[in-house]
Write the structure tokens for this entry.
Amino acid sequence: MTITEAPVTATPLDRARAALRARLLADRVLIDLGSPGLYGRTGVFERVYTAVDTAAVRSMADLDSEVLRFPPVEPLAAFERTDYIASFPDLAASISGFTGGDRKHRELLAARERGERWESFLEPADLMLAPAVCHPVYGLVGDTVQQAGRSFDIVGDSFRREPSLDPMRLQAFHMHEFVHIGTPTSAKAHRDEHIPVMRSLLEGFGLDIDVVPANDPFFGRVGKILARNQVEQALKYEFVTPVYGDAGEATAISSANLHEDHFGLSFGLRTEDGEVAHSACLAFGLERITIALFAAHGTDPAAWPAAVRRALTL
Ligand code: AMP
Ligand code: ZN
């Protein structure tokens, strides 16, 4: 029996999402932490997640990337330069801290005693939760990037404020990004040459994959125009898989994104020939790939098709 949390008026997609979520919780793949899109992870999840990440890294071995790791928070100044708040204010989240004295603390405690929210007693701390793991790198490469470009391997925590009961839509998740900063030609080649590599990796996991122009959720009225431009210019592609079959659109589990001169301009990056640097990112959504595997093959990896287990060296 599946436990459905969706009300009877729910659409087939709501029901499909609720059923997958209920199954992942009942079979102890994920643990509900009591806030939508926030989960604890068990051993079976970690085993598959680690295998996915290892296979993803192996697929990018030709890049000879420089490995970088960053904390899950980024300085406000770096966040500013990415322009993220202009496009996705609803997904952004900031850190606050208590900076008051005894008096303000007493007020906070009194509000808490009355059962009121007390977070308004905290002050913005000039730190943002990182919505994408590549953000800090653009501020670190110096003004001039060698003509051949540089590639980076970056994995870490991402936070996006999009609470949802869809187990594919988390608030806290990880992406493994392979970033290139170089010339217009080398950045475009980075994206284009690895699209087939990513596709065959994900298909090797026994997933149905389509590669489609991305349709990011840009905010507001201006966002609608930005979203249309994004599709028309086809700078970013997503690797989507039909986790919920015919009940809803396929979900993006990875992406390949050419930023052109976006970060080069805002971070003042040039290549040795004096031209503005271009950049591109290949991003594996690690939880999404892992959950897509559980959705496609069931919650017991021992029972997965032999070819899938081989591809993941499980
Ligand atoms: P993006 O920068 O939006 O292309 O994100 C890179 C990858 O991260 C996507 O292809 C997804 O696989 C994954 N991702 C994005 N948002 C979420 C989310 N809310 N929950 C889980 N994974 C996500
Ligand atoms: Zn990136």
Notes: The chain has one domain: 47-94+128-312. Residues 132, 134, 177, 179, 281, 283 surround zinc ion (ligand 2) (CB under 6 Å). The chain has a mean pLDDT of 95.
